Amino acid sequence: MRRLALVCTAVTIWLATAAASAAPRYAVTILPLLPTGISNKGHIVGTWTRPHSKVTTGVLYRNGKVTDLDPKDIFSTPDVPYGRKGLMPTAVNDRDEIVGYRVTSGAVTAEHPFFWARGKIRGLDGTGGWHGGEALDLNNKGQIAGYTDTGNSEDQGDDALYWPSAGVIAKNLGEKMKWRHSDARAINNRGAVVGYWIDTEHVRHPYLLSNGHVTDLGRVSPDCKTNNYAVAVSDAQQVVGYCCDDKTMTSYVFLWQNGRIANLGLMDGRSATPYGINNHGQIVGRAGDSAFLWTDGRFWDLNDLLSHKSGIAIQDALAINDRGEIVAMGIWKGKEAGFLLRPVRAAALKTKCL
């Protein structure tokens, strides 16, 4: 688990453009947490270190205030190996419902999915795997996507899971589809699920599961024979993912819609991995050591939009909502930090640490 310690001061960020008339522009806020997701209301989930106990746990950030998801550590495990502690939220919907996972230490380190709403947290049923599982995404209906770890000493792997709601046992999509192993990475407001499944030859196939029908999205390049992943889906069934070149391990972003797959390529020759897409078809992710935005048919390095005097290096753009707001992580004043980027038109903006 990462830690964040910030000294809150007012700074001024001057926004530049890579192409003066066309480049998007952003106001940047230094967040008091390391973000993992954002809703269309601009509410953010992530992790932070409690000021007094120094325990890192999951939080919801809304209207300038931080809400600890498990302040009494009833559901969390406050001390686990590998530096990972407490809760890891992964997604928040427009009703401020949150999913994620907690980490449990012991003879075997296990991850267990959770659901949080209106101040109450509960575990999700139906993982049952040797190492538990994770809830990775939820939509505005409260439907949840994730996976269970079915690994054992002989055959390690995952099965994709779907929860129709937080109060019922998960449906094992991997068993239903008779996939060897699988993962469910995201779910849209129509209940469509995307992820990848693995065949007996260890080839990873990106898929879209909608209305009970599974679509194999195919390969975006003949050089990507074994590693193809779908990671996010919009309400218009636009699926974003990536493939890895089998020889060079270079990763390329792809966009699938209406049965066609398009290779969006690289950003300035750098390997690119997408993390999210909004309902306007804007995509965010990481390319090399920089965060990217793909919009209107091209990539933008988000760092190119910031003054070099800002002291900010944005490395991962993790999610984007329908207002175009982006949550990201990177480095500020030599320390790991979280950021909120808001699209604006003004050329000079004040940014403050919250």
**Protein structure class:** mainly beta
Tell me the distance between the termini.
Answer: 21 Å
> What quaternary form is this?
single chain
Instruction: Give the % helix.
Output: under 10%
How would you describe the shape? globular
Indicate the CATH class of the domain at 10-34 and 133-352: Mainly Beta
CATH superfamily caption of the domain at 10-34 and 133-352: Peptidase/esterase 'gauge' domain
Major sheet characteristics: 4 strands, antiparallel
Task: Give your account of this protein's structure.
This protein has 354 residues and is mainly beta. It has a domain at 10-34 and 133-352: 7 Propeller (Methylamine Dehydrogenase, Chain H). It is 1% helix and 51% strand. The protein contains 1 helix and 30 strands. The chain has one helix at residues 173-177, and strands at residues 10-14, 25-31, 34-38, 44-49, 56-62, 65-68, 87-92, 98-104, 110-117, 120-123, 133-138, 144-149, 158-163, 171-172, 181-187, 193-198, 204-210, 213-216, 228-233, 239-244, 251-257, 260-265, 272-277, 283-287, 290-295, 298-301, 312-320, 326-332, 335-344, 348-352. The strands form 8 sheets. The protein has a 4-stranded antiparallel β-sheet with strand order 2-29-28-27, with no helix packed on it. A 4-stranded antiparallel β-sheet has the order 3-4-5-6, with no helix packed on it. The longest helix has 5 residues, at 173-177. The two termini are 21 Å apart. Residues 1-21, 79-84 and 346-352 have low confidence and may be disordered.
